[in-house]
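Pasting as-is:
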Amino acid sequence: MRASVGLIGVGAFGEFMLPYLLPHCRIGAYDPVRDLEPLSERWAVVPESLEEVAAKDIVILAMPVQRMADVCRQISPYLKPGAVVLDVCSVKEEPITAMLENLPDHVDIVGTHPLFGPQTGANGITGLRIALCNVRGDRLDCVEAFLSKELRLKTIITTAEEHDRQLAYVQGLTHLMSKIVVEMDMPVLDHTTETFDIMMKMVESVRYDSEELFRAIENRNRFVGETREKFFDAARTIEERLARPGPKTDSD
C-alpha cells in the first residue's frame, strides 16, 4: 500500500513536486489561500482540510518560513504517532526550531532544502541536489533512500547551522546580485559575450521568484547579513579604486 502524504502549501514549489511524488504516494493537499479544485483536475491530488492533511503518514510543510511556527501549532493535535514531518524551506535553523518547539514528540522530523526550483528543474530533477537535516527520530535513512533511489537526487546530509552558513553565500549572494541586475532594467542587448550570458542565466533562474521568498533568503538566515555587508563593502572598495588614477605604464 502506498504511503499517504499531506502537502500543506501548494505554491510554485508545492505544485512543482507533484508529478515526482504522485507515482509513489497518495497525496492530499491543503492551501489556505489557493483554490485547489483546478489543480486536482490536472493531478490526482485530493483537496482536503488541514486536519485531514495533517493526519497522513508523511506531512510536507511547503509554506514560507515566517508561517512555519503558526502552522506547526495548528497541525500538532492531528499528527498521528509515527508520522514523518518534513519542511522544504530555503533556510534551516528557523523552521527546524519551529518544528521542534511546536510539534509533538510522537512524530519524526526531517528538515530538507531542495537546492533547485521550478526554473532550475524545468528540464527534470535527476542529479540535482537536496540538503537533509536529521532533526528528530530515525527516519532520515528512509527519506534519503527515497530521494536518491526513486527521485535520483544527490543528497547532502548536513546540520541546520552549516546549511545556513553556506547558503548565506550560495543563495544570499546570488539572489542579491540577481535582484540588483533585474532592478537595473537593462535594454535588450545583442552584442553579448558567453560570460555575460552565464550571468544572465543566473539572473533568469531567480527573476520570477516571489518577493516573499527573496526576503526569506535575505532576512531569515542569520548569516546572510554578514555576507551582504561584505558584498557591499567590496563593491564600495572597487568603486573607490576605479575613481583613483590607475598605475602608470611605459606608454604614459
